[in-house]
Amino acid sequence: MVVRTKELPEKYFDFVFSISALEHVPLSDERVFEEIVKDIDRLLKPGGLSMHCIDHSTDLLLGEVDEVWTNPLLKYLFESHETFNPFIPLIEVETDNDLFVVSKGFYDNYWKPVTKVEYEDFGKPFSYNILWKK
Asked: Which ranges of the chain does DSSP label H, i.e. alpha helix?
């Protein structure tokens, strides 16, 4: 269960943004997804924008598999909001020649010390972004 805090005022923000945060939401409870969306909408002024970059590599991973997995919250956000960008199935994202992914050099310097996994075995980390207007 998510407990909304009143520490932040209602209808106060023009823009709510997150990066590398929402992919850590528990996977199996749609009620949690609903509460997150309600709290974001509570904070936004009418006409405010909400953008979220779901880009944590352990959750958006393109590897040597036949499917790409992400936290179900991503699809929930697209289904619960009219977004500026349409949902593109992750398997299609994988085949896009213009997809920007974390380079091997960056991975080796910053992520490999944490993951302890070689870049080739880990996959291709990237960010899937979603933007909507209240």
From this structure: 30-43, 73-80, 90-94, 104-106, 112-115, 119-122
